[in-house]
Amino acid sequence: MPSVAPAPLRVAIIGGGPGGLGAAIFLLRLENVSIKVYEQATELREIGAGIHLQANTWKMLVKAGARDAIDRLGSSGQTAQAPKIQHINGRTMEVLKEADYADADRNVKPALLEQVPTESIHLKKKLVDFKIEGGVTTVFFSDGTTDEVDLLVGADGLRSVVRQIAFPSHKLAYTGQTGFRTLFPYDLVKDIPGLPDTTVFLHGTTSHVFTTQVGNGRFEISTRAFIPSDNEVSWGVDIRKEEFLQYHTEFHPTVQAILDAAPSTGWKKFAMFSGPELETLVHRDSVVLVGDASHRAGAGFALEDGYILSLAIQHSRQLEKPLSYALDLFNQTRLPHYSGMYAELARGGAVRKAIPADLDPDERLRRSVGGAFGDTDWIYNYDADKAWAETLAKAAEKESSALVNGVAALEV
Q1: Residue 333 phi/psi, 5° resolution?
Q2: What is the DSSP letter of 193?
Q3: 225: which of 165, 213, 247, 406 fits an S-S bond (Cβ 3.0–4.6 Å)?
Q4: How far is 321 from 200, CA to CA, in rounded Å?
Q5: What local confidence, expressed as pLDDT, does residue 161 receive?
Q6: CA nearest neighbour of 141 among 123, 121, 155, 117
Q7: In this structure, are residues 83 and 100 in contact, taking their beta carbons and an 8 Å threshold?
Q8: Which residues touch 90 (CB under 8 Å, ≥6 apart)?
Q9: How far apart are CA 111 and CA 278, in angstroms?
Q10: Which DSSP category does 8 fall into?
């Protein structure tokens, strides 16, 4: 253990979403660390619909001290909805698969925001570039201002500017799918005959409809459809319901009634993009990516990233090791988890591709949902502390082996 206070660590976090705020919360608990969160928006607010709070996300929110704030602001636990998720044939309403499920809530960002000092958050700051020289990273913003830091955390989402600069060869591509989301009063749908009483994915042959209650008398609909196009770039763009209902005409009358009951306005359009798996989350021992900036995986993964990053920095300081050591441990802990996600996506895609095209559409859905949606326990019951302990054990074993080999070489 060091006998003196650790050297100051200046951190700039780009992005004020759950990943950026979570990283700020965890890093601010470390001694002699200064944090600035830079967000290009004029205010911090939710875009889209609910953040779905599975067990792994709840664990991180508790560690971040945000659970009480979520309960106070209005938790989705205050619904009559069964704590299950069902995958349903949206054409026939046949239940294809069911599993335990947690809540959905739009109050995650406000609850996290309460944990970060106001003076640490800087709005209307759009990153345009960064340069690394002599261990110092200079960040440049569109308004002409700059900042010098020791660590740059890219938490700026799927279209991360930090990632584009650090890994210019990494390119996003439109997946062929576009999503449409809205949130509105539950009273508008509560009397629909056959309304599912759980969180559900209603699957069609070329689209799906997701519905859930999200607390405080609110209801979410998120749909997704295959829309081949070379110029889909929208993200969080306003759209009227009538502009996309054409993609959901095959569904059962109950699903149609849910869509009909939703207001025409208040919808957002999201063109879905993805990129290849990154080989590292770290750039030149000075930049690290968290959350969707590295791989699109949601708020739970993002919060886990911030937590593990704080543990890695704390541990390296205790051993009086450089920042590069901490970032290497972060890589060792989080990269395998993201690799598991890509492997599962590839497995599910292979299952769908192997289904004969001439099968009856409903049988195709049975096979697709039954086989493509695999075990998610490793995601939703992920134990960040256990994963971190395993990384430390491997690091200790590696260092011990290196020491033994070094002694043996001296004896020869």
Answers
A1: -85, -45
A2: T
A3: 247
A4: 48
A5: 97
A6: 123
A7: yes
A8: 202, 203, 204, 208, 209, 250, 251, 252, 255
A9: 31
A10: P
Residue 149 has a pLDDT of 98
Biggest CA-to-CA distance, the chain: 83
pLDDT of residue 232: 62
Kindly state the helix (H) or strand (E) to which residue 210 belongs, with its residue range. Answer: strand 207-213
Residue with tokens 């995601």, as numbered in its chain:
379
Tokens read off for 367: 């096979």
Token couple for 78? 């205050």
pLDDT at 114: 85
- φ, ψ at 77 (rounded to 5°): -65, -15
Q: Which residues of the chain carry a pLDDT beneath 50? A: 1, 48-50, 76-78
Q: Collapsing DSSP states into helix, strand and coil, what is residue 326?
A: helix
Q: Which of the 8 DSSP states describes residue 174?
A: E
Name the amino acid, one letter, at 293: A
SS3 170: coil
What do you get for the CA distance between the two ends of the chain, in Å?
A: 34
Q: What is the DSSP letter of 278?
A: P
Q: What is the pLDDT of residues 100-136, one digit of tens each?
A: 765 555 567 777 888 899 999 999 999 999 999 998 9
Query: The tokens of 375 are what?
Result: 């075990």
Strand order of the β-sheet with 287-289 is 121-122, 33-38, 9-14, 151-154, 287-289, 282-283
Which tokens sit at 177?
């799918």
- Paired tokens of 16: 């004020």
Dump pLDDT digits (tens) for 303-352: 999 999 999 999 999 999 999 999 999 999 999 999 988 888 888 889 88
The string of DSSP codes covering 87-139 is EEETTT--EEEEEE--EEES-HHHHHHTTS-GGGEE-S--EEEEEEETTEEEE
Residue 170: φ, ψ to 5°: -80, 120
Angle subtended at Cα 281 by Cα 307 and Cα 231, rounded to the nearest 5 degrees: 110
- Stated pTM of the model: 0.87
